[in-house]
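STRUCTURE:
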């Protein structure tokens, strides 16, 4: 565990233009949105870049008053983006601003940074960007939290579970009213959101991606069997519309090193209205993975499905979550403990599609990661794992 690492600026940013813009920016500036609790920085004395943020370059700034800020920008101008949805910093800005507004009236609060401004004028620095507070927290990359005592680990996980519950307890319909329709078109038809289910929508999307990718590389084994089983057993969405983070994992949380509590939830660009089972299965997935698979991601670990303590820990966290959130008072089967295996199988399918996509990019010669070849070969293994769970449920 450590504080997020900083380096000299690697991805260019026009600091002179940025300084001129910030010196004069106001709510009347063109293509500029000011946060609801904004304190706009005017003069920067320090500029660095975080080692994370490969998708959207992320920078650290300090102003003349010693205040610290983070700037996130798109990797290229809008016209050159291959996938606009994968770099939606605008959506991230408005979601963070909306959550901060709702936090004022919530018992369970979602710890997110204050956002100060969004600039959609690419003439300023060449990219859409936004500025938020820097959160002074540590990152943890292994959910087993090696090196922590039993008591410390317990404190971390109490805060993790209450934070996930806080996200899922937000008043989604109030949040939608705070979001600009042009950036959130999929949220505008509330009746449609209530009449379809998250898993139906996701299987439709993943099936389309799988079909396209399979033109270039081998298809995912058992794809039809896995998707049919998920659709047959998937629950309806909770009675109340629910915001899900969409990429919830331990390295997207920041922790206060003294209190062990979550002090920041990062990377909201994939958030959507959906079923909270996905966030839980995504976060707790390593405790259900085989240890051999976990060891590809963290150096040494005892975490995994072969370890009875790991399995018991997983189900204890699901029960702790249920103390905060009830998905449907009239349907006790819509419960994270009862639905865990379905959530995990869906998570495996999603990873299959991601792995197949990496395989396609490796074949086409445009994979960016040094580990791409290893991940490209994972989807047949992941598909076999999913089928093992399905067959065990018969």
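SEQUENCE:
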């Amino acid at each position: 565990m450590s504080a997020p690492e900083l380096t000299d600026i690697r991805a260019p940013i026009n600091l002179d233009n940025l300084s001129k813009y910030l010196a004069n920016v106001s709510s009347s500036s063109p293509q500029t949105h000011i946060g609801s609790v904004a304190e706009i920085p005017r003069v920067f004395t320090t500029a660095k870049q975080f080692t994370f943020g490969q998708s959207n370059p992320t920078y650290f700034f300090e102003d003349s008053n010693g205040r610290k800020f983070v700037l996130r920008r798109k990797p290229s101008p809008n016209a050159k983006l291959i996938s606009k949805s994968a770099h939606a910093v605008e959506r991230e800005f408005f979601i963070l601003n909306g959550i901060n507004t709702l936090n004022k009236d919530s018992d369970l609060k979602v710890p997110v940074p204050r956002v100060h401004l969004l600039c959609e004028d690419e003439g300023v620095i060449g990219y859409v960007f936004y500025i938020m507070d820097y959160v002074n927290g540590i990152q943890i990359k292994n959910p087993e939290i090696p090196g922590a005592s039993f008591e410390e680990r317990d404190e971390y996980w109490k805060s993790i579970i209450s934070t996930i519950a806080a996200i899922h307890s937000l008043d989604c319909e109030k949040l939608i009213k705070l979001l600009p329709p042009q950036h959130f078109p999929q949220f505008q038809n509330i009746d449609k959101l209530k009449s379809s289910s998250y898993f139906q929508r996701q299987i439709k999307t993943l099936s389309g991606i799988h079909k396209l990718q399979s033109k270039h590389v081998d298809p995912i084994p058992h794809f039809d069997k896995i998707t049919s089983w998920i659709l047959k057993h998937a629950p309806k969405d909770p009675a109340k519309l629910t915001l899900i983070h969409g990429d919830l994992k331990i390295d997207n949380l920041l922790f206060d090193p003294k209190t062990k509590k979550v002090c920041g939830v990062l990377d909201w660009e994939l958030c959507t209205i959906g079923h909270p089972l996905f966030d839980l299965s995504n976060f707790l997935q390593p405790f259900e993975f085989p240890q051999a698979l976990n060891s590809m991601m963290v150096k040494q670990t005892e975490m995994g499905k072969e370890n009875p303590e790991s399995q018991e820990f997983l189900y204890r966290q699901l029960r702790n979550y249920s103390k905060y959130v009830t998905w449907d008072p009239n349907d006790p089967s819509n419960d994270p403990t009862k639905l865990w295996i379905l959530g995990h199988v869906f998570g495996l399918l999603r990873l299959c599609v991601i792995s197949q996509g990496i395989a396609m990019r490796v074949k086409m010669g445009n994979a960016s990661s040094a580990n791409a070849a290893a991940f490209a070969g994972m989807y047949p293994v992941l598909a076999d794992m999913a089928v093992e769970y399905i067959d065990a449920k018969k």
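REMARK: The radius of gyration is 21 Å.
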